[in-house]
Amino acid sequence: MPRIAVTVDGIRYEEDVEPRLLLVHLLRDRLGKTGTPVGCDTSNCGACTVMLDGKSVKSCSVLAVQADGSDVVTVEGLSANGDMHPMQRAFHEEHALQCGYCTPGMVMAAIDLLREDPDPSEEAIRKGLEGNLCRCTGYCNIVRAVRRGAQSMGQAVTTP
Amino acid sequence: MTEELDAGLVAQQIAESGQVSEPEGKREVGKARRRKEDSRLLTGRTTWTDNIQLPGLLHVAFKRSPMAHARIAGVDVSAARDMPGVVAVFSGQDVADEQGSLPCAWPVSDDIVIPDHPPMAVSEVRYPGEAVACVVATDRYLAADALDAIDVDYEPLPPVLDMTEALTEASPKVHESGNRAFTWNFAQGDIEAAFRDAPVLIDRTYVQQRLIPTAMEPRAVTATTDGESFTLWSSTQIPHVLRVMLALTTGIPEHRLRVIAPDVGGGFGSKLQVTAEEVLCLLLTRRLGKPVKWTESRSEGNLTVHHGRDQIQHIALAAEADGRIRGLKVELLADMGAYLMLVTPGVPLLGAFMFNGIYKMDAYSFDCTGVFTTKMPTDAYRGAGRPEATYAIERVMDELAAELNLDPIEVRRRNWIRHEEFPYTTVAGLTYDSGNYEAATEKALSLFGYDKLRAEQSDRRDRGEPVQLGIGVSTYTEMCGLAPSRVLGSLSYGAGGWEHGSVRMLPTGKVEVVTGTSPHGQGHETAWSQIVADALGVPFDDIAVVHGDTAISHKGMDTYGSRSLVVGGMAVLQACEKVKEKARKLAAHMLECSPDDLEFVEGTFRVKGTGSSKTIQELALAAFAAHDLPEGVEPRLDADATFDPENFSFPHGTHLCAIEVDTETGMARIRKYVAVDDVGHVVNPLIVEGQVHGGLAQGIAQALYEEAVHDAEGNLLTTTMADYLLPSAADLPDFVTDRTETPATSNPLGVKGVGEAGTIASTPAVVNAIVDALRPHGVHDIQMPCTPERIWRAIR
Ligand code: FES
Ligand code: FES
After folding, report:
1. B434, exposed or middle or buried, with CB in 10 Å at 0-12, 13-18, 19+?
2. InterPro entries, per this entry (chain A) (predicted)?
3. A13, A80, A99, A125 — which has fewest CB within 10 A?
4. Which of A27, A29, A45 to mutate to test the pocket of ligand 1 (most atoms within 8 A of CB)?
């Protein structure tokens, strides 16, 4: 079994993993990072989105071995210094979540979206979130939250 | 700093944040309060059922039928038993005597056939994905591996797919008794007279395609036992109903069974069920003495989460030459799928009372046949019966308008119940307590810019532009607050529709509220806190709401059918009233006055005309200390209440959709969507708006995107999210939503319920808009979902 080293939310782990183990299952079942949920088995829903070396990825479509040597940030690590990330705050303020199952992935995808386009139009937000499905909100408030998040993050958009 | 501390800080930060501006004013009800639930959901501190880890936890996987219909000649599990990590493998036959039958709680008619429904098939599979065996292993990957080693010998049988054919003599049978599950009919008024020589007759057939509810959280079950008692965590909407049903079907005594619905990631009816997997996980933990967990994959879920809708509706309407309706006939075929699950047969019946919509008429008849097919059973899906009914009547109203060359709004105006006519008993026998259809419609028309869009439409028509504009309207009502127990009884449902609430003042002055409702995204913790804050005069943040655990919340009927606020919120309010009465007695005793001399203002009892007073928090502490209680008053300030509604509540509204349809490609794009809903008094406008948005997305998706598709052999083709098209942010418009507020008179809060309104109203609004765009091309109907291909073909 390959041994990998991966940093998750600021903590370094060394783990023996089967080559087929998905990153999301490493996070959830082995490291207890259950804040990242699974919504599908075809990489369509985006619920499992995390940051891998600063870019959003669907952790159900990454093998744990591929993450060897990487830095992973999950939704639990976004607020690691005690400050809620502006995007999390924006989701709260705009009531952009209901059951909350899609939310960790949405927040991650939204942050990554702003990395590429710090001041996105409504259309750009809608296009940018195409890979993240939400069954509860109808997306209106999510779009508003991303806009608000963009405003409060300002031009100096830094990914965690 | 540890993560635990971080999460606490974050939560505190939300609560204290100056940036999160809360509205002014003392009253909590009516405020757009940001939700209490959010902090844990946003920071990943949730307890989804799949998050639960127990020492020695084993993982369960199910071997599922690849065929719609087959006899099981044999199941060989021996090779699977030898696989690494495998603890046990069982076929349906192995547990045949123990597994019982999944329950149906709604035997709607005397002629109903309720077939035996084993959680794992024993001799015959009747829908694709039906479980035939299960593996228990030390790891979820190993459990999945072992499934491949199970050898099932199937003898294929002919599938039964089409409801009309299923009812013919020649059809293969799903069950020995035949394919008719039940018939149910109901008539009011002289329907023959209404149709005799009617100046206008509209006769249509509409198809409600089969839908897959698709909550984002896949279903999951964890079960454990200490040898005597059992605990079951399930991503369920109905922990209380589930406990009763599991006790009745598994033989585990009810007092030895605790059911917990932790954080649940959406339901929409799909988690209103007693599932095979819940029963089997209990059985497996009992047999093995170890905790077990099953979490479905999405493709497993698409196959085996109960499906929704699936009806063929023949609807005939007789009207006068001026458009006034005389009578309505509905003949319904409802696809039950292979078995009757918890409320499967009841779903079309809920629609029976809604086909007449908001319109006055003298006669109505409804005939329904429930049909067995070799498909996944259907059951409640967001709206359950009401979206189907509303679709048919709102589509037919547009056909009536077209026939008479009237504006669709005008036809509705000529028929709807006027504001001054409420309460109004409809032809279907329901009494609508309140409503103001004119006001909602006026507001919607003006927000929409109706006249301007109509002008643009005729402009485009005149110029023969390739992209045509269609305008669709839907003026709907629905029934929420399911349901008065006596009504459920009269419809043969197995239980009542009351709800429970418990309010406990704690010694420190904080408040714990226990509700029998079981939310999964609806924000009960916030809304219930608002209600209690006003009723007891305590701060919003001093209130905690507990739910979803039968060991703590021991009574309840759970969350579905937009009943939580209307029934559960009322129970909580009533419990507050009882707490206040008890506090009043204690205050009178302590202040040495008569209870009648006390006034209760913002949490303080004051002796009228004097300065002496006691806050409710002081009284809570005194009631805890119990040093000096008045005669007959027990320690602690707390109370239980149950509320049984006397009537349903009837939200209503007007939805308008403008859609651009490209006649060359068939592409349809929503240009503007306006929803004006009247949900009575509003406890939290933010939550109401959110519910409307989500409902709209689901109703629009039925009109444009979603459909469970089977091939000729009966295999489900839409097993993944790549095949079953859920709308993304890029597919939907920004919705314009607004409200009118006509309080319900059937409950003291004046609330009506909102969870399903958007879904019910939007499907016909969208399809009416598409048909409206294409009428000049001779198009009168398009089968849902209105895909570009279907639209393109309809034009040709
Ligand atoms: S779980 Fe990863 S995309 Fe759905
Ligand atoms: S909030 Fe429930 S899926 Fe997005």
Report:
1. buried
2. 2Fe-2S-bd, 2Fe-2S-bd_dom_sf, 2Fe-2S_ferredoxin-like_sf, 2Fe-2S_ferredoxin-type, Beta-grasp_dom_sf, Diverse_Oxidoreductases
3. A13
4. A45
Q: Which of B125, B301, B132, B131 is nearest to B719 (CA)?
A: B301
Residue B9 confidence class, pLDDT cut points 50, 70, 90: very low
Ligand 1 atom at minimal distance to the Cα of residue A59: 2
CA nearest to B35, candidates B54, B46, B26, B22: B22
State which of A137, A140, A141, A146 you would mutate to test the pocket of ligand 2, scoring each by most atoms of that ligand within 8 A of its C-beta.
Answer: A137
Alpha-carbon distance values, B486 to B396, B460, B483, B647 (Å): 32, 54, 8, 10
Q: Which residues 6+ apart lie within 8 Å of B414 measured at CB? A: B322, B323, B324
Nearest CA distance, B791 vs chain A (angstrom):
24
Measured between CB atoms, does A25 come within 8 Å of chain B? yes
Asked if B50 and A74 come within 8 Å (Cβ–Cβ), the reply is no
pLDDT, tens digit, 9 for 90 and up, residues B170-217: 999 999 999 999 999 999 999 999 999 999 999 999 999 999 999 999
Q: Which residues pair with B89 in a beta bridge?
A: B135
- pLDDT tens digit sequence for B135-181: 999 999 999 999 999 999 999 999 999 999 999 999 999 999 999 99
User: How many residues are listed for chain B in this entry?
Assistant: 796
Contact B678, B754 (CB under 8 A): no
A134 C-beta closer than 6 A to ligand 1: no
| Residues contacting ligand 2 via CB (< 6 Å) | A 97-103, 134-137; B 216, 266, 521
**What Rg, from alpha-carbon coordinates, does chain B have?**
28
The DSSP string of B224-246 is EE-SS-EEEEE--S-HHHHHHHH
Shortest CA gap B330–chain A (Å): 32
Its ipTM equals 0.96
Q: How far is CA B359 from the centre of its chain?
A: 25
End-to-end CA distance of chain A: 31
Give the Cβ contact number of residue B788 at 10 Å: 14
CA distance B217 to B51: 12
Inter-chain touch B215–A42, beta carbons under 8 Å: no
pLDDT per residue as tens digits for the range B239-281: 999 999 999 999 999 999 999 999 999 999 999 999 999 999 9
Question: pTM of the full predicted structure?
Answer: 0.95
3-state secondary structure (DSSP) of residue B429: coil
Chain B residues closer than 8 Å to A130 by CB: 728-730
Secondary element (H or E) of residue A122: helix A122-128
Q: How many beta carbons lie within 10 A of that of residue B729, not counting itself?
A: 26
Measured CA to CA in angstroms, residue B735 lies from B27, B658, B689 at distances of 29, 12, 10
CB contact under 8 A, A42 and B218: no
Give the DSSP per-residue string, B632-651. Answer: TPPSSSEEEEEE--SS-B--
Rounded Cα distance, A16 and B146, in Å: 22
The dihedral over CA atoms of A87, A90, A91, A94, expressed in degrees to the nearest 10, equals: -160
Q: B200-211 and B467-477 as β-strands: parallel, antiparallel, unpaired?
A: unpaired
Q: Is B13 exposed, middle or buried (0-12, 13-18, 19+ CB in 10 A)?
A: middle
- Enumerate the residues of chain B whose CB falls inside 8 A of the CB of residue A99: 41, 215-217, 263-266, 520-521
Q: Read off the pLDDT band of B319 (50, 70, 90).
A: very high
Contact A99 B217 (CB under 8 A): yes
Q: Note the pLDDT tens digit of each residue in B332-349.
A: 999 999 999 999 999 999
Binding-face residues of A in 26-65 toward B, CB within 8 A: 28-29, 32-42, 44-45, 47
What is the whole-number distance in angstroms between the Cα of residue B529 and the centre of ligand 2? 22
Q: Could you tell me if the CB of A80 is within 6 A of ligand 1?
A: no
Contact A138 B44 (CB under 8 A): no
